[in-house]
């Protein structure tokens, strides 16, 4: 993998990029060349106290200078709107606390179980439904990992382990290899699925050691990247996806439908086409999960259906993602229509 060279000329591997994120909103605004008055800035700081700002420099470099409505900036910049009252919204919109039998493990669906290997992400997306998730209480110790492995081994109805947010690729290759080797001996587990935004925001994360781990896996590896706008993708992403494909990894994408970011057929059509050209199949188009602090991203269901129908006229069926929502307590995602 060729290292990332930032606009400032700095060359970075993925670990350096991950340890050198933008966390100060003033710095992000300065890079984006957005002036802000002090009242607005006070609200931004308050929103940051609830959910920290974290942005990789390579992602910030893609924000259009001087454009306060840039679709990448809007996904990561804390805003006063996060502080507004939000009736109907909850800190645990998917009822995950009730499905958390062991720290680090969420079991909602019959054949799949979810493990939060990490409590951190490379990027904090302001719409994230886990923005209030109690990661501190779910920190994985060696004992918890053993408990999780035993839980999976004893539950033969499971056939898939999902590693998801915090971003599972934010942990070291050694931790990933260790966990996959524990799972390798469990015969009824046939698939391991990573849900991750890292290959989008720091594509250098797909390094040779990780590729070797994936290609040596007994179980089928699936990576579901999370991307919401075509401007997030570049030739570094293309290279990472090509390397994963060459190592037998299946690639899918999921997108959250977000107001003022991707709520038009042109952007979503371009995104599907762009993903396909990188070897990634569009999988889900999610309605927003109603998490406190994210009301301003919501698209009414009626409008979402209209957008989805427009996509069907623009794209071949295999490039139209399923329009879904998650409802707490249901045994699967729910197709919207
Ligand atoms: S879990 Fe996913 S959506 Fe949530 S902050 Fe992390 S990368 Fe963003």
UniProtKB/TrEMBL annotation:
Stretches assigned to coiled coil: none
Residue ranges constituting the Radical SAM core domain according to the UniProt record: 107-319
SUPFAM superfamilies tied to this protein: Radical SAM enzymes (SSF102114)
CDD domains: Radical_SAM (cd01335)
InterPro entries: Aldolase_TIM, EpmB, Lys_aminomutase/Glu_NH3_mut, rSAM, rSAM_sf
Entry-linked Gene3D superfamilies: Aldolase class I
Cofactor(s) essential for the protein: [4Fe-4S] cluster; pyridoxal 5'-phosphate
Substrates-to-products reaction catalysed: L-lysine = D-beta-lysine
Keywords on record: 4Fe-4S, Iron, Iron-sulfur, Isomerase, Metal-binding, Pyridoxal phosphate, S-adenosyl-L-methionine
Statement: the UniProt record of this protein carries the keyword Iron: yes
Family according to the record: Belongs to the radical SAM superfamily. KamA family.
Listed PANTHER family: L-LYSINE 2,3-AMINOMUTASE, LYSINE 2,3-AMINOMUTASE-RELATED
Protein name: L-lysine 2,3-aminomutase
Gene behind this protein: epmB
């Amino acid at each position: 993998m060729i290292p990332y060279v930032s606009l400032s000329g700095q060359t970075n591997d993925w670990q350096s990029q991950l340890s050198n994120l933008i966390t100060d909103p003033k710095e992000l605004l300065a890079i984006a060349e957005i002036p802000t008055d002090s009242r607005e800035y006070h609200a931004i700081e308050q929103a940051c106290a609830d959910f920290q700002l974290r942005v990789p420099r390579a992602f910030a470099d893609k924000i259009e200078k001087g454009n306060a409505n840039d679709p990448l900036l809007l996904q990561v910049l804390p805003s006063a709107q996060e502080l507004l009252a939000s009736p109907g919204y909850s800190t645990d919109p998917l009822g995950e606390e009730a499905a958390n039998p062991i720290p680090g493990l969420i079991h909602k669906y019959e054949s799949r179980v979810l493990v939060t290997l990490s409590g951190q992400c490379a990027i904090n997306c302001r719409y994230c439904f886990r923005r209030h998730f109690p990661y501190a209480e779910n920190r994985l110790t060696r004992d918890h990992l053993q408990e999780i492995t035993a839980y999976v081994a004893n539950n033969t109805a499971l056939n898939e382990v999902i590693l998801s947010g915090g971003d599972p690729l934010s942990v070291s290759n050694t931790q990933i290899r260790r966990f996959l080797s524990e799972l390798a001996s469990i015969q009824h587990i046939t698939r391991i699925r990573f849900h991750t935004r890292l290959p989008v925001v720091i594509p250098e994360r797909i390094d040779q050691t990780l590729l070797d781990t994936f290609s040596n896996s007994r179980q089928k590896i699936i990576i579901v990247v999370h991307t919401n706008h075509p401007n997030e993708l570049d030739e570094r992403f293309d290279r990472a996806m090509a390397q994963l494909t060459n190592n037998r990894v299946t690639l899918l994408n999921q997108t959250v439908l977000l107001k003022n970011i991707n709520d038009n057929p042109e952007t979503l059509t371009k995104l599907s086409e762009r993903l396909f050209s990188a070897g990634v199949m569009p999988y889900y188009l999610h309605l927003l999960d109603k998490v406190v602090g994210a009301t301003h991203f919501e698209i009414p269901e009626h409008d979402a259906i209209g957008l989805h129908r427009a996509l069907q006229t623009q794209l071949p069926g295999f490039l139209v993602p399923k329009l879904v929502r998650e409802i707490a307590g249901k045994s699967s995602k729910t197709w919207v229509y």
